[in-house]
UniProtKB/TrEMBL annotation:
Name this polypeptide is given: XRE family transcriptional regulator
GO molecular function terms listed in the Swiss-Prot or TrEMBL record: DNA binding
Domain of life of the native organism: Bacteria
Length: 188
């Protein structure tokens, strides 16, 4: 079962990318090498491994499929950063022009600055995200930072729905958990 962070990440990725990154580790590795213009030093830095190990993967002396789990996860994140940059830029512009609405059924709870809390309960919300958060959301998507993307969505829902753009409940922090479903679409 997918985590809440994965559900948010997948919803954004589905709206931004027209195709997924390659599935095979060797193809991902080749994409990374192409992105760094063949520099084994740059690839090693991005993967957090030695330059010699990158050379082994490149020459076929070692197989990237047999790499440590952490290395493979890092490879996925690094390839995602460079994936479809023009498509991502167009999607960001479109979202900034047309707005972004999040519809989600999830548990929402909150705590206020005064320290009082409200236990999370299942709610269905449909809310337009604040435009100023969109670039940060795209950065989190590009970096593969699932947790940060979820935090930004919670922040946006808190600002727009619960605090009504600081018209009420200033300092209220929103918890966004137990996501049943999440959907994104253009607002305007």
């Amino acid at each position: 079962m997918a985590s809440d962070d994965d559900k948010v990440f997948d919803a954004f990725r589905g709206m931004v990318h027209t195709k997924n990154i390659p599935v095979k580790p060797q193809t991902r590795f080749n994409r990374l090498i192409a992105a760094v213009k063949g520099s084994t030093k740059a690839a090693a830095e991005r993967l957090g491994i030695s330059r010699r190990q990158v050379q082994r993967y490149r020459s076929g002396e070692a197989k990237i499929e047999n790499a440590k789990k952490e290395t493979q996860e890092r490879l996925e994140k690094e390839v995602l950063k460079d994936h479809q940059p023009r498509v991502r830029a167009e999607a960001l512009k479109r979202m900034q022009d047309k707005g972004l609405t999040v519809e989600a059924r999830a548990s929402f709870g909150f705590s206020s600055a005064a320290g009082s809390t409200d236990d999370p309960r299942l709610r269905l919300l449909t809310q337009e995200m604040p435009d100023h958060l969109l670039p940060d959301m795209f950065d989190a998507l590009r970096d593969g930072d699932r947790e940060r993307l979820s935090e930004l969505v919670a922040e946006g829902l808190g600002e727009a729905y619960f605090r009504q753009f600081d018209a009420r409940a200033q300092g209220l922090e929103v918890e966004f958990t137990d996501i049943d479903y999440i959907d994104l679409y253009h607002s305007r």
